[in-house]
């Protein structure tokens, strides 16, 4: 949830966001050509979108298997205490946890985990189970691994 108030985005802002989601390495000059704006005006728009918290950073996408992570799983954790420090400490100590979402319902957290093997997943889930009841779902495949966000 953004901490800054929502700004009105126009079609040029939408074009900037769309182009950068397709290629985050695009230079300002390339982006300016793609959206038919001058480089200086494009840079000003980028700065405004960043300052407003619309653009929060730039990153690369990597193939987990290429890095040795052959198992992806989602772990639901029923965490029964309101003291979240032990949870945050454990998450900070396990780099294999790539996402954690505090959710409503019977479970408190849904956690995305990458593991090198099923034995490695067992080690990770064993550590998570020290905090509460867990349910683990191993991913067979990801037909929609990630989508770009379009402005609402």
Description:
This protein has 152 residues and is α+β, with helices and mostly antiparallel strands. It folds into two domains: 11-51, Arc Repressor Mutant, subunit A, CATH 1.10.10; 64-138, Lrp/AsnC effector binding domain/regulation of amino acid metabolism (RAM) domain (Alpha-Beta Plaits, 2-Layer Sandwich), CATH 3.30.70. 35% of the residues lie in helices and 19% in strands. The chain has helices at 11-22, 28-35, 39-51, 85-93, 118-128; strands at 71-79, 97-102, 109-115, 132-138. A four-stranded antiparallel sheet has the order 2-3-1-4.
Describe the strand arrangement of the main beta sheet, using strand numbers.
Answer: 2-3-1-4
The CATH topology name of the largest domain reads Alpha-Beta Plaits
Low-pLDDT stretches: none
Strand content: 15-25%
Helix content: 25-40%
Layout of helices and strands, plus pairs?
Elements: H1 11-22, H2 28-35, H3 39-51, E1 71-79, H4 85-93, E2 97-102, E3 109-115, H5 118-128, E4 132-138
Antiparallel strand pairs: 1-3, 1-4, 2-3
Protein name: ArsR family transcriptional regulator
Keywords: DNA-binding, Transcription, Transcription regulation
GO cellular component, one term: cytosol
Describe the structure concisely.
The protein has 152 residues and is an alpha+beta fold.
Task: Provide tags for this entry.
single chain; 152 residues; alpha+beta; Arc Repressor Mutant, subunit A; Alpha-Beta Plaits; 4-stranded antiparallel sheet; 4 strands; 19% strand; elongated
């Amino acid at each position: 949830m953004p901490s800054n108030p929502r700004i009105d985005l126009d079609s040029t802002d939408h074009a900037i966001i769309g182009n950068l989601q397709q290629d985050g390495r695009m230079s300002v000059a390339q982006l300016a050509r793609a959206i038919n704006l001058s480089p200086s005006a494009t840079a000003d728009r980028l700065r405004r979108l960043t300052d407003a918290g619309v653009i929060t950073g730039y990153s690369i996408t990597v193939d987990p298997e290429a890095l040795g992570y052959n198992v992806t799983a989602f772990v639901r954790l029923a965490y029964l205490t309101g003291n979240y420090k032990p949870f945050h400490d454990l998450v900070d100590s396990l780099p294999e946890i790539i996402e954690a979402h505090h959710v409503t319902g019977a479970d408190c957290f849904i956690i995305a985990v990458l593991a090198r093997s099923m034995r490695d997943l067992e080690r990770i889930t064993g550590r998570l189970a020290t905090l509460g009841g867990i349910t683990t779902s191993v991913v067979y495949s990801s037909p929609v691994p990630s989508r770009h966000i379009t402005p609402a």
